[in-house]
Amino acid sequence: MSAWRKFLNSPVGPKTTHFWGPVANWGFVVAGLVDTQRPPEIISGNMTSAMCVYSALFMRFAWMVQPRNYLLLSCHAANESVQLYQLSRWAAANGYLGDKEPVTDGQTPTAPPVKA
């Protein structure tokens, strides 16, 4: 049996949800990476925290399910990394890390005040 046919018919191959679920979840990773270019003031701390918990739970699921789903594990590990980075940007922008003043007026912390 060829390697392609073996993969096609495997328990985690493209004929199963063990394959297509993780492929779809890579969208979260891509969206998070795109959002790293946006200002941290628009990051939702609640949603980013929820995404961190979600990815942590599903990393465990991917490890425990039989057969092990390494594609799902890698997807959620990548998403956990991106979301933790976004959470650190949100915390810094809101003054939780102690190195910057909180942003309350929509300006970046380093921008000079706007004169009326």
UniProtKB/TrEMBL annotation:
InterPro entries tied to this protein: MPC
Signal sequence region: none
Pfam families: MPC
Keywords tagged on the record: Membrane, Mitochondrion, Mitochondrion inner membrane, Transmembrane, Transmembrane helix, Transport
Membrane topology qualifier: Multi-pass membrane protein
Residue intervals passing through the bilayer: none
Domain of life: Eukaryota
Principal location: mitochondrion
UniProt GO BP: pyruvate import into mitochondria
Cellular localization per UniProt: Mitochondrion inner membrane
Cellular-component GO terms for this entry: mitochondrial inner membrane
Function description: Mediates the uptake of pyruvate into mitochondria.
Family statement drawn from the similarity comment of this UniProt entry: Belongs to the mitochondrial pyruvate carrier (MPC) (TC 2.A.105) family.
Protein name, entry field: Mitochondrial pyruvate carrier
